[in-house]
Amino acid sequence: MNGSGAKFAWQLHSSILSDKKRGIVCMNYFKGRHFQQDIIIVAVGYYFRFSLSYRDIVELLRDRGVSVHHTTVMCWVHHYGPIFKALWRQHQTSHTKSWRIDETYINVKGHWTYLYRAIDSNGLTLDFELRKHRDYAAAYHFLKRLLTTNGRPDRLVTDQYRATLKAVKHLMKQDYLSKSAHQCSKYRNNLIEQDHRFIKRHRVRSASFQSIRTASATLSGIEVIHALRKKTRRELSLIGFSAVDELKAMVPA
């Protein structure tokens, strides 16, 4: 996805939020593609769910009679990651009012970037965002959007990193958060520390990210699948979890 692709993804996210308020369905995301919608969803669904390379996906598709180049799979991953993130946000359901906020390290072309993440007390994903720096601006931007989208929590647990504490205090002054709601507790934050492991484990076999744009797009898809899987396990579904079926269910008919 080039610069115009990134601009499209942002416009898409804005349009989905607008359409959600009006109660209407958005565009056909697969129109004009050389491959059928089901093939694309299978390819990206497997990549987001399992620790596979693009060439692994090509081999799996070839065994099913579909010939595709690994760079095509890469383009699908970069293009549809932000789209599925926007659709996932549209389909989010209720959550508890006790939240855990933390960030984890992601290597992008030899440099550390920071994936800010938020979950509730049941372990369900609330939001996530990849940032270049771990500083006040990054923490404030992430927390403000989280609070604006999901309302005021009864409890917000963070670590004791100074930039995060500064952002929380600023949001308290702006009345986004009550003073009694914030807690600094390493023990209570173990829940999200354990939840980081899925993202770390997923990247073991995959090549390192080459830009923060492609890293953000890919991690969007991975986080969405992780969030859907946790929700399915929480609901004790008898059918089991299928990344492909979950992504198909999110796409408007």
Characterization of this structure:
The chain has about 250 residues and is of the alpha/beta class. Helix 2 (about 35-50) crosses helix 9 and helix 3 (about 55-60) packs across helix 4. Helix content is about 55%, strand content about 15%. The longest helix is centred in the C-terminal third of the chain and has 23 residues, at about 210-235. It is globular and about 60 Å long. The protein has helices at about 5-20, 35-50, 55-60, 70-90, 135-150, 160-175, 190-200, 210-235, 245-250, and strands spanning about 100-110, 110-120, 125-130, 155-160, 180-185. The chain folds into two domains: about 35-90 and about 210-250, no CATH class; about 100-210, Ribonuclease H-like superfamily/Ribonuclease H (Nucleotidyltransferase, domain 5). It comes from Lacticaseibacillus saniviri JCM 17471 = DSM 24301. One of its GO terms (molecular function) is DNA binding.
List keywords for this structure.
single chain, 253 residues, alpha/beta, Nucleotidyltransferase, domain 5, five-stranded mixed β-sheet, 14% strand, globular, IS_Transposase
Mean pLDDT rating: 86
* Computed structural class: alpha/beta
Tally of individual domains: 2
Distance between the termini: 25 Å
Keywords: DNA recombination, DNA-binding, Transposition
InterPro entries: DDE_dom, IS_Transposase, Transpos_IS6
Organism: Lacticaseibacillus saniviri JCM 17471 = DSM 24301
Domain DDE: 97-231
Task: Summarize the structure in short.
The chain has 253 residues and is α/β, with parallel strands linked by helices. The chain is built from nine helices and five strands. The protein has two domains: 100 residues, no CATH class; 113 residues, Nucleotidyltransferase, domain 5, CATH 3.30.420.
